[in-house]
Each structure stands twice: as structure tokens, then as C-alpha cells.
């Protein structure tokens, strides 16, 4: 197959229906096959759509008929043929093939790619490369791509600079636990839990920075909302407190969702998702505590429970709920205290689950050393980070949104693994 010639001549399947082209060359995957005596039907699928190829024994070349008879599902073929109107064919048009070339023959399929309900998620993930043949699954990741592009577009419009941070770190950035150890020559190192310390150091010179950053958390338990490797949409801004960046986050999520509504209409339809641009609500931690007390929903003194997050989702549907004035004991060492007991940290809850946490940071070295000690961490392990605030560090704030978490919630997916191409969890390291 001359792939350069094919690239020039190929028509996408969706264009068969929208354009009036008679002789076409298409490629794709064999979606379904059917034989009725002297007639063979084959549904061919590419990235854009599905079309029926119809072969009458008396009308098509013998070799073409033979391939149509034998070809296995999900095999990859090239078809040159004629487009004809057909009332029975899906979309009102079908292709009468003059030539078919098999580019790759598929083995017997280990999972059913036509009927999603027949295979449990773990098995689908074992064969994720094949699971991704399904248009419904492709829709999830096309929308995830829009989320990433939307984040980028929004941030660039805000005047932020995209940055790349190290993924091997020497000490914890989110607290002592949940670290994956790595060997770094003679030293002990860790896989990054977040780009927290680096984005802060950078905001102190570049003012507004953002990143799409992979993080690793060695959480031992399998849940429907946690991964051991996930990606974060990170933001950090100088001369800002938590309210400044909560507003940035609200506008950013709204921008992303508007973009999905504009650009992924078909994908949303194929997933059956009715998406709305969210509203915004601000509540203090104490107010949330009161609401939960009245509803008899348990929650911690310095953390929300899963049930409390769910309740917020029910009380405020299609709303980003910012919970601020968070007790300092429930926030990481880098969050700025507010008075004795509270902090300038917040969580953002959307559709009953946390999508982001953030806040104003400590930019005062002495206070940072005090907070590290209070959290049982050693200031000497954070020397270069603390030192970075000794030479003119402005007050600053920021947040991180979980990419897979946000995708899961936007699309009402039942498990975060559905929103991750190749999930890493307690039991899964391949594919
Ligand atoms: P945090 O640890 O709350 O904050 O993470 C921010 C967001 O990332 C997502 N997330 C996860 N998603 C899937 N699996 C996980 N194990 C996981 N852990 C976190 C969530 C969460 O809200 N540096 C701070 C952010 C900041 O203050 O800027 C941080 O990492 O959606």
C-alpha cells in the first residue's frame, strides 16, 4: 500500500455522507460483517464514522467477494469503490467495492468491542488498546483533549506561562506519606507527588505559571476516585490570595466546559451526557459543617467526608462549590494560616466530588519552618525551597485540578479509570 498516495486520496467516512463524491478511497476497521447468500455486508469504521460496504457476488470482483466473506472483525482494510444511494443502508448511502486490500488481519477478539455491557472494566483495561477501538471510548479521550486544550487556551489568555517541572524530587511536596521511592545514583529520591514547590518558586519570579503535570501517589487502596498516577492542571499566581485564584479556577472550569459544549457535541451525545456550564458557590468550612450537622451527615473536624462532598453535589447541582476558611490542621504545610485555627486553603467540589484544592501559600521563611515542624517534617529537607523565599518573594496562591477526576465528573463516569487511558492503580502496571 502506497501510504503517501493514500494520504492524498483518502476520504474520511463522514465526508461520504456530506460530500457528493462518486468514486472514493477509504480505510478503516471492519466493524461488523453479515452474509445473506449471494450478498455480503460489511460495516467499515474510521475515526469519523461508519459506512456500509455492500458486495453482490455477481457484481463485485471475485477476490473482493472472497475477502468480504472471510475478513475478521476489527481487521484493517483499504476500500476503493463507488458511492451509491441506498434507502436500506445506514445514513442513506453505501459503497460498492471495486477493490479491497487487507492491511492487517485481526485475531479473534478477546473483548466484545460492539457491546460494551458484555465486558467488565478490568478486562477492558487489560485490552485497553482494543477498548479504544470503540467510538464511545474515543469520545471520552477526545473530550479530555478538549479539557487540556481549554486549560491551555484559558491560561495563555490570562497571561500565564506554561512550565515544565522535574518529576524526580528529593523530599515530599504534599506531606510525608504516599511517596514512591526511586533510586537516584547514591541518593534516595521520590517520584513527584505534585509540582507544588516548583510552581511556587517560579510564581515568585514569573508571576503567573501553569502546567499539565503527572503526579504519583503511593496510596495503597483501590477506590473509584483515586489513581496512583494521575495528571494535574496546576496554576500559581503572585500577588494573589485564595479568593483571587478561586475566581481564576471558576472561570477556567467554565471556559473548559463551554469549549466542550461547542466542540464535542457528538461525543457528548454518544456518551449520553447533558452538560451545563456550572454556577459558583462560596461556603466556609464552618458553614458546610453546620449544613452536614443538620443533615446528620458525618464529616471530620478538618476534612470533608466523601458523603459530605456528595451532599454538597446534591444541594448545589451543576455548581462549583468552593469551601474556604479551612481548618489549618487539615491543610498541607505550605498553606498560609488565617488566625489561630483557620487557613487560606480551599477545596473545590463539583458534582459531589473534590476536583481541586489550593490556597494562598506561605511566603515567609520563618513561618514555613514553623509549619513544617508542626507537621513533623524537617526544615533541612526543604532548605532550597525555604531559601527561595528569602530574596524577595511576593505573596502568592494557586491550585491543582485532577485531570482524570475532572474528566470523570464532567462525563458522569462511574470510575476514574474510565477517564484514564492507561491507569496505574494498586494492581495494574500494564498495559
Ligand atoms: P491535591 O493533593 O488535593 O493538591 O490534588 C489536587 C487534585 O488532584 C486530584 N488528585 C487525584 N486524582 C486522582 N487520583 C489521586 N490519587 C489524586 N490525588 C489528587 C484531585 C485533587 O483535588 N499541590 C496541591 C494543589 C495546590 O494546592 O496547588 C495538590 O496536589 O482532583
Write up what this structure looks like:
The chain is an alpha+beta fold and 431 residues long. It has two domains: 3-104, Nucleic acid-binding proteins (OB fold (Dihydrolipoamide Acetyltransferase, E2P)); 130-419, Bira Bifunctional Protein, Domain 2 (BirA Bifunctional Protein, domain 2, 2-Layer Sandwich), CATH 3.30.930.10. The chain has 14 helices and 18 strands. Helix 6 crosses helix 8 and helix 6 (135-158) packs across helix 9 (265-271). The protein starts with a helix and ends in a 21-residue tail after the last helix. The model has no long low-confidence stretch (mean pLDDT 96). The site of aspartyl-adenosine-5'-monophosphate has 22 residues, from strand 11, strand 17, strand 18 and helix 14.
Low-confidence blocks of residues: none
- Mean pLDDT across residues: 96
Q: Main beta sheet: strand number and arrangement?
A: 8 strands, mixed
Which small molecules are bound?
A: aspartyl-adenosine-5'-monophosphate
**Total of DSSP H or I helical runs spanning 4+ residues:** 14
In the CATH hierarchy, the third-tier topology of the largest domain is known as BirA Bifunctional Protein, domain 2
Instruction: State the domain count.
Output: 2
The first-to-last residue Cα distance is: 30 Å
Name of the CATH first level of the largest domain: Alpha Beta
Global outline: elongated
Question: Structural class of the secondary elements?
Answer: alpha+beta
What percent strand?
Answer: 25-35%
Helix content: 25-40%
CATH superfamily of the largest domain: Bira Bifunctional Protein, Domain 2
Oligomer: single chain
How large, in whole angstroms, is the Cα Rg? Answer: 27 Å
**Number of strand elements:** 18
